[in-house]
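It would be a great kindness if you could assist me with a short task in structural biology. The full record is reproduced below for your convenience:
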Amino acid sequence: MSFRDELDRQRAQIMRAVRQAGNDWAEAMKAHKLAPPDAGFAARLRALSEAAEREQVAWEHAHAAGLMWRPIPGAENAEPPYELRAGTGRRGPGELWRRFDESVAALNRAITGSSAAQVADAFGELSDAAGALADAIAGEDEAAATASSRTAA
């Protein structure tokens, strides 16, 4: 196998990983779009965090292989699903939501360009922000459940 054949094989593997990460991301976003207001909110945020992390890794590999992101014109004005938007009664600490909102804006800016490295970094920050929110909200839910069981007893 020549170096060129090996490089082509490696790039094909990376593109499969990019497609899978994109599918995972789309599923995580779809879960938020179709979500009822329920206790599964923290789990949906966790899934979003994990999907963003897979996107980060896939695009880091793509960047290392010399691949570029295909720009999405107008994405800087995109909004997340309703339950993730400011002013919709989101549960959780305000400072973590500000960080989340900033990471969404940074991702939206990154995907209007062609830098796979910038897209990977933006997905990484969004993963961290969503993960911190998931932890905080799961903690709040657990505390509320504990308090509820104490008052019921």
Observations:
- The radius of gyration is 18 Å.
- The chain has one domain: 3-152.
